[in-house]
Amino acid sequence: MCGSHVLWTMMFSFVIVTSTFFSLSHQQQQQPPLDPSEQNALYDVLHSLNPTIPWRNLFPDDLCLSAPHGVVCDFPTHQNETPHVVELSFGYVSDETPNPPCSLNATLNNPLISTSFPYLRKLFFYNCFNKTLPPPLSLPSSLEELVFINNPSFVAALDTFLQNLTSLRRLILIGNSFHGEVPFYIGGFLNLEEVTLSRNNLSGKIPASLGLLRKNLKVLDLSGNNLSQCLPHSLGNLSQLLKLDLSFNAFGCRIPENLRGFNRFGNFGVPLFLGEIPTLKEVYLSGNFLSGVIPDIWENLGGVEKLGFSEMGLVGNIPASMGVHLKKLSYIGLDNNNLDGSVPYGLLQYASEINLENNKLSGRVELFSTTTKVGQKVKLAGNKGLCVDNKVVGGGVLGQQQLKACKKTDVPDAVVFSGTSSLLLRFYSLAGVVVVVFFVFIFTGF
Length: 446
Description:
GO molecular function: ATP binding; protein kinase activity
Oligomer: single chain
InterPro entries: Leu-rich_rpt, LRR_dom_sf, Plant_LRR-RLKs
Organism: Glycine max (Soybean)
Largest sheet: 13 strands, mixed
Number of helices: 11
Keywords: ATP-binding, Glycoprotein, Leucine-rich repeat, Membrane, Nucleotide-binding, Repeat, Transmembrane, Transmembrane helix
CATH superfamily: Ribonuclease Inhibitor
Strand order of the largest sheet: 1-2-3-4-6-8-10-12-14-15-17-19-21
Pfam families: LRR_1
CATH topology: Leucine-rich repeat, LRR (right-handed beta-alpha superhelix)
């Protein structure tokens, strides 16, 4: 915060000079000034967020023509129309975006944002409410972007907070104290392109109505809450989705113990609806004990770049199809599960960062040159049955993971053939048998 105040001190002299220029320009254009009610409301908001700065003295003129960074007005095309405040961004982020800084005891003296700024399209608070609890906000239905980041003292029920915001395109509430359930009516906000509600205190289930956002929603991030119950299959309707992050919640639907060996129909574990969203690039489900197996749904998910399935209680094999189809994969986390069997060949070929620690995997692992260059990102420890080629084990990072070197007699069961390669392998094996039988016939006379 000290750096932000220094920056603001340097900016003030520049702002005072430029405000004179803008005032002259304003007089020449004869543009009507900002509505007095919006002007006074803006002074009140600035003062309550940071009373250490003399806002009225530093910005005495029309705040649409001379305002601190973060305050944006629209200028009507017609001369006699009054301009209005359409964007408010508070909380110093960086020198590139020097929004008005919030003090340690920031609050809001006037929470009626809806009546004070009826034309507001964007509201942004970053690291503003850390100690003082602001009163409940009343937000205008004109809002298109609502962004609250790292405001732990901002406590509100999400259900009541979002009512009537049907124009929202971006909803980003990260690291605050919103509680309650994700409201079912959010499925009616059909313009939504991003819903990020991570690191709050949300509970209950994900409403199936989110599936109604199939035309526009590209990001759905509900990570770091206490959401529970099952994942609705309607999420598979989100055909434009690029990122799905539901990690570190309390989603259950774990497989009953007496069915653990028969779970091949996808009612538990990694949800089958993922296979219905071919646009996906990032998927995170880590930290939810969904249990079950990893389904074979990867044929249409070749665009996936990041995959987080850590600490989910997963069992069974890693599907060979993941190594065949996920050719754009840069990161995969399958650590701290109960997976067994071999490591599909392609995962180590394509992924530059891979974590398979603490499973029950076995067989031979062959690392490629692109992988060994980032050996610190290849984590295989905690799999007693795995062995690695001698070339890459000796003394390096992998050696520190106490992985054993493969012997020449070890069967490279991690190599998975598919498609034409598999057919050729079977053909050559069958041909070998025929040749052997042929020679036996010749030499024995039978």
